[in-house]
Amino acid sequence: MSMKIPESIRELPGAFFLRNAIIVSAVAGVFLLINTQLEPTYSFYLAQAAMYATAMFGMVILVGLSGQVSLGNGALMAVGAYTFAITSMNWQTVPILGLPWNAVWSVVTAGLVGVIAGLLIGGLGARLSGPYLAGLTLGIAVGLPSIIYRFPSFLGGEDGFALRVPFPPGGYAAQDGGEVSAADAAAEEMSNEGFEDFLAEAGGDSSEILEFDQEELATGETPLVEDEVLEFDQDELSLEQESTPDLVQDVDGESPPAEISESEDSFVDLVDESAGVIDLTGFVIEQWQASLAVVMAAIVGFIALNLIRGNQGRIWKAVRDDPVAASLVGLSPQSNKVSAFVISGFFAALAGAVMAQIFAYVGPALFGLTLSLSLLVGVILGGRSSLVGAMVGAAFIVVLPKAMETFAQQLGWEDRVADNLPNLVYGLLVVLVVLVLPAGLVGSLMVAIRRRTQR
Amino acid sequence: MTFFDHLLGGIASGSVIALMAIALVLVWRSTRVVNFAQVGQAMFTTFLALAVYRGTGNWLISLIAAILAGAILGLIVHFLVMRPVRRQDGSGAIIATFGVLIALQASASMIWGVDPQAYPPIVDIIGFEAFGRTWPFSRYDVLVLGVTVLLVLLLSVVFTRTSLGLRMRASAFNPTVARLSGVRVSQMLALGWALAGSIGAIAGVLIAPTFSVTPYSFDILLILAFTVAVIGGLDSLVGAVAFGIGTGLVLSLVSGYSDSGNASIVALVLLALNLLLKPEGVFAHHHSRSV
Fold first, then answer.
1. Which chain A residues are within 8 Å of B103, Cβ to Cβ?
2. Which of A205, A267, B30, B46 could form an S-S bond across to B204 if both were Cys, CB 3.0 to 4.6 Å?
3. Smallest Cα–Cα separation from A382: which of A400, A370, A394, A369?
């Protein structure tokens, strides 16, 4: 650890938090600086990686420190994303402390609902060990889309909600109406691009439902979710036009701008013309999204760092390694397992709120089993007890699909093979890492460095 | 559709859930691992069987191919992944099975694509006609039920009446003592994985005609089989069969009276209730489940 700092300084009150704050702001500052120099596409990757990292910090606490394998954190992200979407669409009229409702309140609400969801799942799972907990959370991940379909008016059903993200605060004020809508249109166009990538990565949707109705079976009619997703994937513009006005709502509380009802051609024209307009703010939408995501990851990372390096981290490890010994010294295994779930629920919900912002959309297709699995995969690859490992894992699950895509394109492989290559590599890597490097890439590296320095 | 009709319609799907749960139970018995990749293995062998069926046009040959492939795949997973991982803590094994699941689903998508494929049934899938109406029970359902009953009987005879079954039960119950008594425990564990792989493969082929086969369409079966196996106590074949068919009936009623999309929610509710009320399972042989 910090060997050179004298003991007297290290024991000053607040020194612990101060040191963690310095570490986190340094890391976040570097990423924010890098972000200003990035191409929009790479900024969007950064935004996604930061969003995954936010959720994975919770996975580090849950899976790494408290030893509970959860496949439900994608569902907890969905809780955050939906809370964010619904509150920012419908709670515009609710004033907080005399100020109008804004996105920050939606994020806070999302976090609080995430805490409640974490408490529910954690309370249910605290009595369970290993496979039982994994199975229960797996059930939640697989069942979630069906729950969303249940409430088409409240949760948007299969189509989900398209959101309009406020960007950046005050950025529109200096511009006249036409340019505003142009920038807006560009924002949506670009974030949809990223969303398209994301859906493509997600591959097959896992919300396929067993059909038990014999008559339907006989005719061979099985409704497929994939079709819906593909349809949506191919043409976001048509979705915009098809969706009823109450689905496309403005986060700013404005009525949906006119260009939505305009023809596709003029929409595209607007986007093309807007290339220069966005630069007026000095910041393209992707960079704004990435900054949001990095700041959120920094806040969550700071909380996580304090918890992990502090007393609570030791308590979680004690409960994980020996529940009997832990309860003999007065630590309750049950409540400390629940607390890990609550924290990871909080983080996952905040990550979900960021996700809603950067994709400008929430829908069941985003929150399939694939999301929960990739969170687990990322944490295992990076190192399940390390925050740096979570960051590496997050970068990995964003970069690997793109790298594989380029790789497969160069070799001229079929789409079918190329699209599923990342998942195959994930699966094999997870098995390999569990077998060869159980502490993950970063964790094992740390162990190796520590051994070398001690020699 | 009457209440009775819905019950009748649930028997066949319940049998398949029961078979899949039996596969989970066999692996749990032999290695104390819940194999979350089991359904992925079944999906993969179902695709293989479909390819064989398209090549040969013979349903029985495709079933035999699935059984063999299931056993081989089970052995591969056991020897390449689960045996090396057995010295680690519990979560390592769980995560490894998910890794296998992801890899299997990705390879199946690569080889066969994600478009739904139809697996033709060997016998009539339209319900019997009697007393002037069509009943929600077909020749195919009879076949599924028959195969399930036959397999369960066969397994119980093997486990309770043969020396091989005794050795398998001994290795599962207490590997150390079994090894001291001269049982080749590692062989028995491998046998458990192979057997589970074959039974999962049979379940896959049997359920395939009743829904579209895609690399991801078996996910819901995983939840259902896991739920059933856990409610049954994870080491009880009787429990797996009873609750498998019971769950089939409940799901049939639910989808009859509300919506088939509720299947996974029902499974989730059943699982949560069981884990809250009777976490050691209803048919568990011994109460070894810890915190």
1. 423-424, 426-428, 431
2. B46
3. A394
